[in-house]
């Protein structure tokens, strides 16, 4: 009887130790997740790939914890979008414009006369009432493929059927994060612009930011960096001269 009691005590101690290790591990991971999200939100690119991996793995648990403390869970998706923009940016820049796919949500439309096709999505007529028409004109002039998605599933089908080398999407935090992960899982670098006003209708996006990211190339990025360095050097020379 005593031997059985000893075995039971040992097993209880082992289970207790395993439970403590598991609890500590979970707490450590959650702390790392919060730190990663904060770095992303404040645009501090510290270990972005590691932070993104943690965010992807603990996405739902972290949202549940934030919901429990009455915090907006969309913050998690916003952090994920920012991290993916950082991680995929260099690869995105190296893709030719003709091999990029721009995905816009139909909620950007205003008083829209466009028709909807199950294969092509929303077919913009460039009526000029919203940003979609202006983006279509830019895309056609630069040879960029564009689709206006009636929903998330259409966006996924467009990525599969068009097989682009890079994707740039526009949507609310949750939908954009999902689409970017879908593209990244297929080896396609994806960047995104979050809507400045969300909702199912009459949404809005920062048009200047979208156009800048849409047309960004490695050559233009290198030129911008070069100009920035020259500007800093000129400022240093002026201070030294004083």
Sum this structure up briefly:
By secondary structure, this protein is α/β, with parallel strands linked by helices. It has nine helices and six strands; from the N terminus they run ααααβββαβαβαβαα. The protein is 62% helix and 12% strand.
Q: What does this entry look like structurally?
A:
This protein is α/β, with parallel strands linked by helices and 242 residues long. The chain folds into two domains: 1-79, no CATH class; 95-242, Rossmann fold, CATH 3.40.50. 62% of the residues lie in helices and 12% in strands. The protein has nine helices and six strands. It has a four-stranded parallel beta sheet with strand order 4-1-5-6, with helices on both faces. A two-stranded antiparallel ribbon has the order 2-3. Strand 5 (166-171), helix 7 (173-185) and strand 6 form a beta-alpha-beta unit. It is elongated. The mean pLDDT is 81.
**Overall tally of structural domains:** 2
Question: What is the fold-level CATH name, i.e. the topology of the largest domain?
Answer: Rossmann fold
Give, in spatial order, the strands making up the sheet with the most strands: 4-1-5-6
Number of H/I helices: 9
Radius of gyration: 24 Å
Largest sheet: 4 strands, parallel
What string gives the helices and strands in order? HHHHEEEHEHEHEHH
Estimated structural class: alpha/beta
CATH class of the largest domain: Alpha Beta
What is the terminal-to-terminal distance? 90 Å
What spatial form do the alpha-carbon principal axes imply? elongated
Provide the residue-averaged pLDDT: 81
Q: Provide the helix percentage.
A: 55-70%
């Amino acid at each position: 009887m005593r031997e059985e009691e000893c075995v039971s005590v040992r097993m209880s101690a082992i289970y207790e130790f395993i439970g403590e290790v598991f609890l500590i591990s979970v707490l450590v991971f959650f702390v790392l997740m919060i730190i990663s999200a904060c770095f992303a939100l404040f645009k501090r690119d510290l270990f972005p790939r590691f932070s993104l991996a943690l965010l992807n793995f603990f996405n739902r648990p972290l949202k549940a914890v934030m919901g429990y403390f009455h915090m907006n869970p969309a913050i998690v998706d916003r952090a994920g979008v920012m991290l993916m923009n950082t991680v995929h940016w260099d690869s995105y820049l190296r893709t030719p414009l003709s091999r990029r796919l721009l995905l816009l949500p139909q909620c950007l439309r205003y008083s829209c006369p466009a028709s909807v096709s199950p294969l092509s999505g929303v077919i913009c007529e460039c009526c000029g009432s919203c940003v979609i028409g202006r983006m279509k004109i830019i895309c056609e002039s630069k040879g960029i493929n564009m689709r206006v998605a009636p929903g998330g599933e259409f966006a996924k089908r467009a990525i599969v059927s068009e097989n682009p080398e890079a994707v740039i999407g526009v949507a609310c935090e949750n939908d954009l994060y999902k689409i970017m992960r879908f593209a990244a899982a297929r080896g396609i670098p994806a960047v995104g612009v979050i809507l400045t006003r969300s909702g199912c209708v009459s949404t809005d996006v920062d048009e200047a930011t979208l156009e800048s990211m849409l047309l960004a190339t490695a050559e233009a990025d290198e030129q911008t960096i070069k100009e920035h360095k020259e500007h800093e050097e000129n400022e240093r020379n002026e201070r030294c001269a004083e």
